[in-house]
Amino acid sequence: MSTCPLTVHALLHIAESIKIMGPVWCYWAFPMERYCGSLQPAIRNRRRPYASLDHYALEVAQLTQIGNIYNISDVLTLKKPRGDVRGSYKEDFYPSCLLLPPRNKSRPANNIINKQIAPALATRYGIKVSVINQQIKCAEIEEWGKIRRVDSDAGDTISTYSMSGERDDARDSSFIRYQMYEDKQERYRNRPEQQELHTFYGRLDHLFVIRFDHTAREHIAFEDDEPLTIFLAAVRSCRITETHPSLDIHYYTKLGGIHVVDVTSIQSLVGRVRDIDRWAIIDRSGLLAQAIAVD
User: Fold this and answer.
1) Which of 69, 74, 204, 251 supports an S-S bond with 242, CB 3.0-4.6 Å?
2) Residue 269: which of 174, 169, 170 has the closest Cα?
3) Where do the structural domains in the chain lie, given as residue ranges?
4) Are 244 and 252 in contact (CB under 8 A)?
């Protein structure tokens, strides 16, 4: 009740709960705190608060199930829609991605263009690197600091390592799970390619937006409906040394090489926990967030 101070509430309930159920940490957690906080506005009837809570919990559960069954959760939500961040950027060809500031309009260093961007585009379109280098001279290239997934309720906001800076007290939101094709016969030059989709973990180092000139269509095999603007992500991979299959936890000690992929290959943000001399990657997205490869 609003007339019951926190100290009195503790004396009335917490001590008795410890006596009956044991220490508070056995049954009380932050998610429960959040849920109880969401129930507070439901106490409309001061004479019968428990009946009011029961009706509210039941109606919320019913609306949630209706939204899930008929895919109308967005219509039934009572929350105000979150608008785009000021200074953000979106392309129709990338409906699942929203680029967020900071933004660097300066052209990347030549070694990044020549060793990362150009080879990735040459592989993507199946043409020579020299052709890409010729076309990329006339292209606009800029770098963004963050990307947000807007195609799910999670709404992961991922920061790039190159533009987020390093602070001891800051959260590192640059590690991701991504998927890309890998040639099984890469070590054998005379064998035909055999591409397989694999899952990787790594640190998002750069986010590039490349805008080609209209003349690029004469030299690069763009699809008919494909725009001349491309979003690329440069990810430094993690060298996984051990995996816990049942818990979906992956361990690594060192970072590997750079993979330059389309931003749609990014699946989700992942967390990390220090484990003595190695890092454990906690993938909270699970199997349902993985990409589906279509031939």
Assistant:
1) 251
2) 174
3) 6-76, 97-289
4) no
Per the CB < 8 A criterion, the answer to whether 256 and 169 are in contact is no
Q: What is the pTM of this model?
A: 0.70
Contact 158, 204 (CB under 8 A): yes
H/E stretch holding 246 reads: none
* pLDDT tens string 165-220: 666 666 789 999 999 988 776 777 777 777 888 999 999 999 999 999 888 888 88
Pick from 178, 180, 183, 203: nearest CA to 193: 183
In angstroms, the Cα distances linking 90 to 96, 121, 144, 247, 263 are 9, 21, 12, 35, 12
What would the two tokens of residue 286 be? 């699970």
Helix pair 30-39, 49-70: axis angle to 10 deg: 100
